[in-house]
Each structure stands twice: as C-alpha cells, then as structure tokens.
Amino acid sequence: MTALAKLRTERGRMSAMDRRIADYILANSQLLRDYSSQQLADALKISQSSVVKFSQRLGYKGYPDLKLSITEAVARASAVGAAGGIAAKPDSDPEAARADALWQSKTAAARETCGLARGAALADAAHRIAEAEMLFVAGEGIDGEAARTFAGRIALLGHRAVAHGQPHDLLASLSAATPRDVLLIICGHGGGEWMRACREMRTAGGHVLVIARRTGRLAATANACLAVSAHDSQPHIEDLIYEAATRHLLDDLFLRVVAARPASLETFLANRRRMHDDAGE
Q1: How many angstroms separate the Cα of 223 from the Cα of each of 62, 168, 247?
Q2: Cα(198)–Cα(218) distance, integer angstroms
Q3: What whole-number distance in Å separates Cα of residue 163 and Cα of residue 151?
Q4: What residue ranges do the domains of the chain occupy?
Q5: Crossing angle of helices 3-10/94-117, nearest 10°?
Q6: Is CATH 3.40.50.10380 the right assignment for the domain spanning 120-278?
Q7: Rounded distance, CA 29 to CA 89, Å?
C-alpha cells in the first residue's frame, strides 16, 4: 500500500488535527520532498512534534520515512502517467484515449485496493463467509447491484445467502440472526443508515464485515473492514473507479471462498447448468 493510499484510507478515522495534516500532504504531495518537518509545521501553523507524531501514528519511524514513502508514490504515479502518454499517438482518437485512461485508473484502483486488503483480514473474511450458516449482504445503489451479484454467486456454491438494498428490510431479516451468521455491508458513502443493522448483528453474536470507500463510524461498528481505494478529482469518474475496484475485491473474496471449500465448486457448476437449462426451455 502506498503512503498516499494509506492517507486517503485512514483519513476517516483521524482526529481533526491529523485530517488537516493529511489533507495538506495530499494536496501538496508533489512538493513534499522539499519540505522539512518544521516547514510543514509552519505551513499548517502547528508544532513540529505534531508532524512527527502524525507520521508515527501512520506506522512510519518519523517524518523523513513518511516523506520518502510519499515521494516514491508520487514518482511511481508520474512514471505510469508518462508511460501512458508515450503509448498514446498524437492523432489518436480522443474518445479511445479517454477510455484507455479510465481503464488505467480502474486497474490502478483495483491493484491498490487489493494491496490494502491483503493479509489476515481478507483471509479471515473469506473463511467466515465460507463457514457462515447464513450470509446477509447489503448495499444501496451501485453497491446494491454488487451485493446482489455477490450473494447470488455465494448461493450458487450451495450456501445460504440473501441480498438487501434497504436498511429496514435488512433489519427484518436480522431478527432471526444467529452467532453463526455473517453480515457483509458494501458502502461507498457515509453508511449511517446501516449502523443499526451492524449493532443488531453484533448483539446477535454474528460477524460484521464492511467494504467501504472511506473508513469511519460504520467501520468502527464492524468486526472488520476492507477499504476500497478509488480517488479522482472528478466525482463521476471516481464513482466508476470505485465500482470497478469494489467488484474486483468481491471477485477476489469469492475465489477465496471457493478455495476454502473446493467441494462447493461442483455445486456451483451443477446449479449453473440447471439455471441455463431452465432458461433454454
């Protein structure tokens, strides 16, 4: 995970002071290599020790370590951009160039998201879903579409899974939740409407997993959170990038569930054939 990705992902859980520092660094990342910790502190009108402690809270040894990581991340991003510029021909179709730029942004976001999710959290999420007695998947809008697709694939494996697009419908289903159940919430925005459902599942003893664009209060109520990295200055482009990165993360999670219970693949194939045969009649 790059330093810039870490700043964006952790921002929702930061204090007001730390958010100020993070926002300044993100806005001036290309200039940070010329800033000492004292210069950064002066620009923000805070103490030098606040900058140092901020760096350490992010997991770096100190400000020089953080600055080096950010400088490397900026250099890598510039190299990718330069490579894309070299590949494009001056007389190339602008529509094709825009589509290619979007594809590169989606690929980068998916790669960064997978980097954030690597490790025990993703492996544990796949194991819990594979062993769940019932999987509840929730999301609204484009998240709702992703929730329905993921729940459908899990159901084809022979697992009990249901998708919900409205909080009140989910709450009704959770009235019968047990400690062996798992709730997966996909959320690309604030997520406050799902807070009660998280609490209900935790009260029932079940496991709550959140996939979110921004970590915050919703993630704090869950047992675990997988962050999606999707950032662009244009909101409509950012939404497209977010959707692609989220789908890729869910696909990775699905493959891990299959790997956890290989025998379920036969059930998947049988159910898939049955559905296609029925559709052809």
Answers
A1: 30, 21, 21
A2: 8
A3: 6
A4: 3-88, 120-278
A5: 80
A6: no
A7: 29
Query: What class has domain 3-88?
Result: mainly alpha
HEC profile of 175-186: CCCCCCCEEEEE
Helical spans, DSSP H, in 11-133: 16-27, 37-44, 48-57, 63-87, 94-117, 120-131
Kindly report the number of other CB atoms within 10 A of residue 79's CB atom: 10
pLDDT for residue 278: 61
Widest pairwise Cα distance in the chain: 73
Alpha carbons 20 and 14: distance in angstroms, whole number: 9
Dihedral over alpha carbons 147, 191, 114, 230 (to 10 degrees): 110
pTM as predicted? 0.71
Tally of residues, the chain? 281
Positions in the chain short of pLDDT 50: 83, 85-90
| Number of neighbours of residue 186 by Cβ within 10 angstroms | 29
Q: What is the pLDDT of residues 146-157, one digit of tens each?
A: 999 999 999 999
Selection from 154, 161, 165, 146 nearest residue 245 by Cα: 146
Nearest CA to 54 among 24, 29, 33?
Answer: 24
Q: Which residues contact 28 (CB under 8 A, 6 or more apart)?
A: 35
